[in-house]
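Bench notes, afternoon.
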Amino acid sequence: MRNFVTYEWFTIFIIFGTICIVLAKFTNSLRFQDFLYVVGNSKYLKIYSRQQKFIDQFDSFLFLNLALSTSIFIFFAYSAFVSPLSFELIPFSKLLLAVSTLIIIKILVERLIGSLFEIDALIDNYLFQKITFKNYSGLVLLVANLFLIYSKIRLDIIIFTAISIVCLINFMGFLTSFRSHQKSINANFFYFLLYLCALEIGPYVLLYKAIREYNA
């Protein structure tokens, strides 16, 4: 086990994340089974994109794990490669709030754009695909955090491996979305580039600044 005086908090967070995943499976076991095979299989996206709601209980449970697992992973990655951090509950809660808020605001802004340009159906379908792959990444980060806390494997190996897997998952998700909406993207390529800069790259710059504040 890593030598952290307050590793109990990380254990509590991981248990809570695991409970959220179990609750997602409990609410819809068939959907959860399909969700586990979403990478490389479009069955889940085709079936459940038609059933999506503005607030989806299944995705909400997975989102809670995503926010927690991402925050823990960021904590260890920042400690390993930027500056060592000592765990404090209040600053970590601020980091968790920043991660959660960033994800939620991005989704709301994209839905607003869909409404403004009257492309709600297109945006909803795209967001469902993106949220699905992000929630799947949350499962990977949960496992990575277990290794970060309880194994003796070098931190950099675990972190780089997890980042590579998460990037691959989301890249596959991006390709899936790109293929699904290729005609619309080709016809509005300039706006697509503007979207990437404003809503896909910009928010992560803000997240980095929030992390810097955490260490201040």
